[in-house]
Specification:
The structure holds two protein chains of two kinds. Chain A is mainly beta. Chain A contains no helices and eleven strands. In chain A, the strands form two sheets. In chain A, strands 2, 4, 5, 9, 10 and 11 form a six-stranded mixed β-sheet that branches. Chain A has a five-stranded antiparallel β-sheet with strand order 1-3-8-7-6, with no helix packed on it. Chain A is globular. Chain B is mostly beta strands. Chain B has no helices and eleven strands. In chain B, strand 4 and strand 5 form a beta hairpin. Classes of the chains: A mainly beta, B mainly beta. At the A-B interface, strand 5, strand 9 and strand 10 of A face strand 4, strand 5, strand 9 and strand 10 of B.
Chain lengths: 113, 117
């Protein structure tokens, strides 16, 4: 089956850099996505990696190593508004009729002043 | 802007009641999903639908059923609610996959927090 591991909680200070790791086990791997969810809000898409390497979108970057079944989300110049839960998710090949995602348990990031 | 709406933000029901959770999306997406979210367990897929009247079981379908009679609407049904179904329920939608290299972004509704007493 599919499984993803990520830390349950990370704390960092404003202005710092934080890395949230994700390791996965899946069959038919198609890519690793990251979603952000603020308390009381809906998850929203942040980034996606299909191939090895780093993808940068502003202050956020995401990295993937397919050979290590590992990825991470890097948040730079942390701001208070980055306090949220972050989920990694794999698109797997269980069903070709739809794009099913399997989510990790989520990492709660707390940014302190 | 993609909009996914859910019929209720908060719902309180009694054990044994039949519960309907409704989800509507306005972007003509083929795929729709129902997840439940519990602390530390992330989002777990209950059911998804890739077309009208088509459905597939996710990871935790037991105790749930779904209905998709129109493309924009996907309903989750708890036939006989139980206390262990107290949870946050999230609906999502997406376009049909365009293959490897596509993020197949899912767009989520605000969630329904269901409490079963």
């Amino acid at each position: 089956g599919q499984s993803l591991e990520q830390p349950s909680e990370v704390t960092a200070v404003e202005g710092a850099i934080v890395q949230i790791n994700c390791t996965y086990q899946t069959s038919g791997f198609y890519g690793l996505s990251w979603y952000q969810q603020h308390d009381g809000g809906a998850p929203t898409f942040l980034s996606y990696n299909a191939l090895d390497g780093l993808e940068e979108t502003g202050r956020f970057s995401s990295f993937l190593s397919r050979s290590d079944s590992y990825g991470y989300l890097l948040l730079q110049e942390l701001q208070m508004k980055d306090s949220a839960s972050y989920f990694c998710a794999v698109r797997d090949g269980r069903n070709n009729a739809g794009n099913m995602l399997t989510f990790g348990g989520g990492t709660r990031l707390m940014v302190k002043p | 802007d993609v909009k996914v709406t859910q019929s209720s933000r908060y719902l309180v029901k009694r054990t044994g009641e039949k519960v309907f959770l409704e989800c509507v999306q306005d972007m003509d997406h083929e795929n729709m999903f129902w997840y439940r979210q519990d602390p530390g367990l992330g989002l777990r897929l209950i059911y998804f639908s890739y077309d009208v009247k088509m459905k597939e079981k996710g990871d935790i379908p037991e105790g749930y059923s779904v209905s998709r009679e129109k493309k924009e609407r996907f309903s989750l049904i708890l036939e006989s609610a139980s206390t262990n179904q107290t949870s946050m329920y999230l609906c999502a939608s997406s376009l049909v996959s365009s293959g490897f290299g596509s993020a197949d972004t899912q767009y989520f509704g605000p969630g329904t927090r269901l409490t079963v007493l």
